[in-house]
Design brief:
Elements (H helix, E strand, L loop, with lengths): L2 E5 L1 H8 L8 H10 L4 E4 L10 H11 L6 E6 L3 H10 L3 E4 L15 H17 L3 E6 L3 H9 L4 E5 L1 H5 L6 H17 L3 E5 L7 H5 L6 E4 L1 H10 L1 H13 L1
Parallel strand pairs: 1-2, 1-8, 2-3, 3-4, 4-5, 5-6, 6-7, 7-8
Helix pairs in contact: 2-3, 6-8, 10-11
């Protein structure tokens, strides 16, 4: 079974567009929890243009009220971000190599060349009791490097797969993900996935096997506008829980 974690960044972006606390992010988290989602994700970027640090604290308190609901915080591991993880202690922290100028996450870590930067950060998360995950491209060498520096999981960056889903290169590219996931499993790393997954392409992707969690926000939010929250979450859970 694959767990579905709903990313609430687009709810936060909609809230920020009007300068009021509407829609309320924790309220929507509760709605998704009530509909059966397995977890909540948020990615507070450095400029707080959608999710904010306050949201991370509020969602951390909310998720502790629901045993079995995992809280995943994504972000670039600045000192302020890691200090926040040590306070909130979410179930999982996904480290992403984005900077303040990026529109969205668009590449995985170069772990081979950044291991000295990442290793002490992973040590701090472990000391805080937070499961770590590194955002990676479907590259066997980078996955092995992730295992070597002691992360708990990887999150496969799936934009490459999603952008080629309707092309004749889909199976070739999917094989890269299958190989990367196999390297992770052989190294006792858990495998998560996310970015541009949706109701059309998710089922085929999960056929790579043993994906523990998918984090989906942008497409899921649009699909909820089109079809309604209950229908969309039921459809995702049918795919993920199979």
């Amino acid at each position: 079974m694959t767990k579905l974690s709903v990313n609430l960044n687009k709810i936060a972006l909609l809230r920020n567009s009007r300068g009021r606390d509407y829609p309320n992010v924790p309220d929507f988290a509760r709605r998704f929890i009530d509909l059966g989602t397995d977890g909540i994700t948020i990615h507070p970027r450095q400029d707080e243009r959608h999710a904010r640090r306050q949201d991370a604290h509020e969602l951390g308190r909310l998720c502790t009220r629901f045993p079995g609901i995992e809280f995943n915080i994504e972000g670039y591991p600045s000192e302020a971000f890691i200090a926040m993880m040590e306070i909130i202690r979410p179930d999982q922290c996904t480290l992403v190599p984005d900077d303040a100028e990026q529109l969205t996450s668009d590449h995985g870590w170069d772990i081979v060349n950044e291991r000295d930067f990442l290793r002490p950060i992973l040590d701090r998360l472990r000391a805080a009791g937070v499961r770590s995950s590194l955002f990676v491209d479907p590259d066997a060498g980078q996955v092995q490097a992730a295992a070597d520096i002691g992360t708990d999981r990887i999150e496969l960056y799936t934009e490459l797969y999603a952008s080629h889903y309707h092309t004749d290169r889909r199976e070739e590219i999917l094989e890269r993900y299958r190989e990367a996931a196999a390297v992770a499993r052989d190294a006792d790393l858990g495998v998560n996935a996310g970015h541009d997954l949706n109701l059309r392409n998710l089922k085929r992707f999960l056929e790579i096997g043993d994906v523990l969690e998918v984090s989906i926000g942008h497409a899921l939010t649009v699909e909820c506008l089109e079809r309604g929250m209950a229908d969309v979450i039921n459809a995702y859970l049918a795919i993920c829980h199979g």
